[in-house]
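Re: weekly structure request thread

Next one in the queue (396 aa):
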Amino acid sequence: MSAPIAAIKQGRAAPFFGRHPWVLDSAVERLDPSARPGDLVEVQAENGNFIAWGLVNPASRIRIRLLSWKREEQPDRGWFADRIGAAIGLRETLGLGAADGACRLVNSEADGLSGLIVDRFADHLVIQPTGLGMWHRLDMIADVLRERLAPRAILVDLDKQAAKREGLEAPVLPEWGTPNEGPLEIVEHGITYRLDLRRGQKTGFYLDQRDNRRVVASYLRGRRVADICCYAGGFAMCASKLGGATEVVGVDISQAAVDIAKANADRNECGNCRFETSDCFAWLDSAVSREERFGAVILDPPKFAAGRKQITTALRAYHRLNLQAVRLLEPGGILVTCSCTGSLMREEFVEMLHGVAVRSGRMIQILEHRGAGADHPIGTHCRENEYLKCLICRVI
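Done, posted below.
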């Protein structure tokens, strides 16, 4: 089947032959006027050579999201079924197929499906389209997922920034099947969590930190722990149940998140956990003024910058947050500091932490550089997806 043509400017095609999936508006020389938002287009070099098939959005800075680099493999329903099936197969190979578990099934560019995220929570799936082309194909994607996995329900989540960038909007988000009326339960590392998929943050839970929660817990035995920006209490629960922490204080600005964390602590009989509703900066400032001391502080704040233009401001926020955390730590204490700001480079994050060490007069040893789990793979062709940075440090 023929498709509208998009021609790349002279000298700009090399990254796309190298399978980078994002064709920015500045790289497009010509776009067939018949191409409608979300349409499949054939992307060609300036000499007419085929590069790839992609989905177009004339209103987005990412003008085309490339999917298939083989002319004979035009992305139709069968192609999507194969790609989604391969992504699910990887997670099954990783041992993430437990009926009551949760994991990321499709991780956008890294699984060759730019603009599509799919998470599994027990027998529920959550689709997060981050590109207009995937938004237009939601029915087909849901149909493929139902054939492959037969979930009880499929929900759709819209990231606000992606929706604004791509022009995604709907008065009511679609659903398939029969979603749970109340909270949904999942089990991770033997700990049960109650989630609200419709009103929760991200697609319902921070799945990218799953392995980090277990590893961080191994550093916390006998320590008093502060879990800052705790959300549903993932790090806090693991500190209590797996890590042997003596006391865990969780803090989140969202009352709804704190209510969920408290319910999770009760569900798992974590009597040494307590949770407070507060802005993280205000809580840290107050704790420092009270001269509180902790054996470990975990920082997992929300994204501080949407792009490179906000990086300087973001680094100031990270510096302030980490400086106050270090001031709370007893000598030899553990600092776990995270950033989900994708536009912030790991080297910049480490340099910020060095600035904290200098200003506080403390020595900071990085024990582990960590990122997201294996269900959040990173393609060498699109390293922009390596957003999560998790440093486990010792502060002397």
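The mean pLDDT is 96. The radius of gyration is 22 Å.
Next request, please.
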